[in-house]
Design a protein that fits this description.
The chain is mainly α and 322 residues long. It is 77% helix and 0% strand.
């Protein structure tokens, strides 16, 4: 049987797809846009001599392009993730990359396996879409985690800036200049928008909705209420910073408590597949006597569905809302 070799080829092709997408991204946009780089991308663009208005236009285009194209077939599956990850690829470019990696996967499957053509096409499309989605989802999770970690320190920096007498617009600019990306570029866009006349509370609300972050919603509401009713904004933000930091610690504690259950679900779903792979490598003819049985393929699908349901149920049980 060639099942173990083909299974390894599928895994290799999928990993190759992820590396290919990452490579295309870095080649197209450079290391400055990679999340592995902590430079302030907005300031870097300004240092290169690009005008402030052009920088704002470019960054806003990148931040809003994905949510405007959710009506594109299949693209709606990853539009929200691409928005949170601030992927610089346009929706059309991402779709083209899906087609490119699907073709790459089809060539790999054609060379390395003897699968039927129709099945190779279906697997190639699945690998192309799944690979790009996995890459975008990883970028989104990493970026959102960095934003949540940076926000308490940014709010405390705003408090110190307000207490020395700076206006609130200047405190936003201080955050944009002093902290690292990704939060620096987000606040830099807000500072530039306000410099061109946009209301600060509206800009903060738009940022909170675009990133779907509850802590940013708290910040926008606090600023909006202070603008309407007055009060000591520094003291308000100081209390908000404590709340955000406490929520962040609580999220981390919940994540640590539920980590065992999450990894148990992954282990219970992955262990049977690992055993199957080991058996097929150790004894390739182990299933020869039953592979032609009419119930063999349906049983394989049933097992796959049950293992997937295990992951879904475990994820629901450990998805604790705070």
């Amino acid at each position: 049987m060639q099942l173990p070799v083909e299974a390894l080829i599928y895994v290799v092709i999928f990993v190759g797809v992820l590396l290919l997408v990452e490579g295309i991204y870095l080649v197209a946009f450079g290391k400055s846009i990679s999340l592995n780089s902590r430079v302030n991308r907005r300031l870097e663009m300004l240092d290169k001599g690009v005008g402030r208005e052009q920088v704002l236009e470019q960054l806003r285009k990148e931040m809003q392009q994905h949510m405007k194209t959710q009506s594109i077939p299949l693209y709606s599956l990853l539009a929200d993730k691409a928005q949170k990850a601030a992927i610089a690829f346009s929706p059309r470019q991402l779709i083209m990359i899906m087609a490119l990696v699907s073709g790459f996967a089809f060539v790999g499957l054609s060379i390395g396996t003897a699968t039927d053509t129709l099945l190779r096409v279906a697997l190639s499309v699945g690998i192309g879409i799944g690979g790009v989605y996995a890459w975008v989802n990883h970028k989104a999770q990493k970026r959102m985690g960095m934003l949540e970690e940076q926000l308490p320190d940014a709010v405390e920096l705003m408090v110190r800036s307000l207490r020395v007498g700076n206006p609130f617009i200047s405190t936003i600019q201080v955050v944009a200049n002093e902290v690292q990306d990704p939060l620096a570029t987000e606040f830099g866009v807000i500072a530039d928008e306000c410099a061109y006349g946009r209301d600060i509370s509206e800009a903060l609300k738009d940022l909170a909705e675009r990133l779907d972050m509850q802590d940013l919603r708290f910040l926008s509401v606090a600023v909006g209420i202070q603008q309407q009713s007055g009060g000591n904004l520094a003291e308000i933000l100081a209390g908000l910073a404590k709340v955000i930091r406490a929520r962040f610690r609580l999220f981390r504690r919940v994540k640590a408590i539920t980590a065992e259950a999450k990894w148990s679900g992954k282990f219970l779903s992955g262990f049977p597949l690992a055993c199957l792979l080991f058996i097929m490598i150790k004894d390739p003819g182990y299933y020869d006597e039953v592979i032609d049985h009419p119930w063999f393929i349906p049983a394989c699908f049933f097992v796959g569905i049950m293992l997937t349901l295990n992951l879904i149920v475990m994820r629901i049980l450990t998805n604790i809302k705070v």
